[in-house]
C-alpha cells in the first residue's frame, strides 16, 4: 500500500470512530436520523425502497438545482462538487479494506473449524444461535436498524465504563474457561480414553 493511501485509510477509520463515539455530534446525529427515517418509512409505513430512494434523489437534485441557480442570480460561483468524486487512491483504499475484511474472515473460519478450538467453536455456535433467534423475531431491515443503533450506543457506553467492563469480561472468560476445562477433563477425555481402550481390545482380538 502506498504512503498516500495509508493516511486516507486512517482518515476513513478516524471518521468512523468520530461517528460511533459521538466525537462529531453532527455526523452522529445525521447518521442516526437518516437510519431512523429509513426504518420508519420502509418498515412502519411500508413504503417501497425504490420509491423512497427516488424521492430522496429528487429532493437532493432539486435542492442543488435551486441553490446553484440562486447563486448565479446573485452573481456568485455555483457549488463545486468535484470533492464528491471517487479518486483512484480512494478506490484502492476501499478495495484494500475489503480485502483485509475478507482475509480476517478467512482467518476466523480457519480458527473456528480447522484448528479445532472448542472454546472458539462454542462461542461461534452460541452467537449464531442468538442471531437466528433474534432474526426470527424481526425482519432484516429492523435487524439492520438495531445494529446501527447498537453501534451508536454500545461503543460510547464501553468507552465511559471500560475498566468495569474489562473486569467483568475477564471474570466471565475465566469462568467459561474453567467450565470448558472441567468438561474437557471429565467428559471429552473419558470418551477418548474409552475409545482408545475399545480400539486396543479390538486390536488384541484380531491378533
Automatic annotation (TrEMBL):
Keywords assigned by UniProt, alphabetized: Endoplasmic reticulum, Membrane, Transmembrane, Transmembrane helix
Q: Which GO terms describe its biological process?
A: response to bacterium
Where it mainly occurs, coarsely classed, is: endoplasmic reticulum
Give the membrane topology, semicolon-separated if more than one: Multi-pass membrane protein
**Where is it found, in Gene Ontology cellular component terms?**
endoplasmic reticulum membrane
Q: Where in the cell is it found?
A: Endoplasmic reticulum membrane
Domain Reticulon, by residue range, is 16-207
From the record, give the transmembrane residue ranges.
Answer: 27-42, 48-68
Q: Which InterPro entries match?
A: Reticulon (IPR003388), Reticulon-like (IPR045064)
Q: Which PANTHER family has this protein been placed in?
A: RETICULON, RETICULON-LIKE PROTEIN B13
Q: What is this protein called?
A: Reticulon-like protein
Amino acid at each position: 500500500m502506498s504512503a498516500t493511501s495509508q493516511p486516507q485509510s486512517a482518515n476513513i477509520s478516524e471518521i468512523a470512530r468520530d461517528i460511533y463515539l459521538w466525537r462529531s455530534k453532527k455526523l452522529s446525529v445525521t447518521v442516526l436520523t437518516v437510519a431512523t427515517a429509513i426504518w420508519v418509512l420502509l418498515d412502519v409505513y411500508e413504503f417501497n425502497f425504490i420509491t423512497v430512494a427516488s424521492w430522496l434523489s429528487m429532493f437532493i437534485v432539486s435542492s442543488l438545482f435551486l441553490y446553484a441557480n440562486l447563486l448565479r442570480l446573485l452573481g456568485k460561483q455555483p457549488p463545486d462538487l468535484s470533492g464528491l468524486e471517487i479518486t483512484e487512491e480512494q478506490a484502492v483504499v476501499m478495495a484494500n479494506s475489503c480485502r483485509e475484511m475478507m482475509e480476517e474472515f478467512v482467518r476466523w473460519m480457519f480458527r473456528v473449524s480447522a484448528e479445532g478450538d472448542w472454546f472458539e467453536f462454542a462461542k461461534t455456535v452460541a452467537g449464531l444461535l442468538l442471531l437466528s433467534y433474534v432474526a426470527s423475531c424481526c425482519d432484516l431491515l429492523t435487524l439492520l436498524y438495531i445494529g446501527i443503533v447498537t453501534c451508536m450506543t454500545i461503543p460510547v457506553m464501553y468507552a465511559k465504563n471500560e475498566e468495569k467492563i474489562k473486569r467483568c469480561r475477564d471474570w466471565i472468560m475465566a469462568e467459561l474457561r474453567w467450565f470448558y476445562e472441567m468438561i474437557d477433563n471429565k467428559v471429552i477425555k473419558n470418551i477418548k480414553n474409552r475409545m482408545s481402550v475399545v480400539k486396543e481390545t479390538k486390536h488384541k482380538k484380531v491378533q
